[in-house]
């Protein structure tokens, strides 16, 4: 398994993001979910297994101190192997290297596995922020990163 940086224009990243959005629409029971809007300033990491990207996640700077994890997705056939946990750790490392002291994220109340992952990785609930305010299905989490020695 390899975790590598990929541009948002990478065809495998694009395919993973389409799959993620399709799965979110199915999971939310047809509720008005988020619409994917690409951001040029999101840095994507891909998890590559046997030459194929099987998972992705992005990091976007909200401000100088705060990074936001976005678009976490692991193909169903690769779930339960610890890939998402390793991807979260890699995204946190990217955030740390970019000078962020906090990483936050949003997920849906209808995604208990995602909530379980984030809380087990040390994320704590925070008030809904930014574009998620007013969405009754959004829950937000944050984690303070260690300070450089």
Automatic annotation (TrEMBL):
InterPro entries: Acyl_CoA_acyltransferase, Bact_Acetyltransf, GNAT_dom. Keywords: Acyltransferase, Transferase. It holds the Pfam family Acetyltransf_1. Transmembrane segments: none annotated. One of its GO terms (molecular function) is acyltransferase activity, transferring groups other than amino-acyl groups. PROSITE patterns: GNAT. Residues 3-146 form the N-acetyltransferase domain. Coiled coil: none annotated. SUPFAM superfamilies: Acyl-CoA N-acyltransferases (Nat) (SSF55729). This is GCN5-related N-acetyltransferase.
